Amino acid sequence: MRFLVCSPDQNRSLKFLQATSSLAPDAVTLDFFQSLESFCERLRKPVSPNTVAVIVAGDAEDLRNLLPKNDFLWNLRIIVVLPDESRETLTLARTLRPRYIASGKSDFSDVAAVLVKMAGRRKGFGNRRKKTILGESGRQNRSRQA
Fold first, then answer.
1. CB-based contact 68:59 (threshold 8 Å)
2. How many domains does the chain have?
3. Does this model's pTM top 0.90?
4. CATH code where residue 96 lies
5. Per-residue pLDDT tens digits of the chain, which is 146 residues long
């Protein structure tokens, strides 16, 4: 899974990196972009269906500048971290159709939890999923861990 992280603010980038350091490094690739221009340039290239864009906006203007590039974000799962909690900023963030919107006061632990879930892993539970086994008659015989 690949995460494209756009964060013009270095301090917030470091906080994000610390919060997401628990993700499995062999299964996850983090690409950091410190400018909207380089982020948008990367979006022009093909991306896999397992790509998630994380936009850590420095201000409402960053979100406004992404609106014309909305076509490049169409097939991506998006997480937006707001710079503030104003109504205008929230409205701009919603136009990007994000899966999750985090508060500007976030310590990124909530964002890391959402990324783990998007990656198909649950902390403490591993990749095991409960599976129901049906008998020949179609009735449930038992449940077991797969």
1. no
2. 1
3. no
4. 3.40.50.2300
5. 888 989 887 777 778 777 777 665 666 788 889 888 899 899 889 888 888 999 998 888 989 988 888 888 888 899 999 988 899 999 999 999 999 999 878 788 888 888 888 877 544 434 433 333 444 444 444 444 44
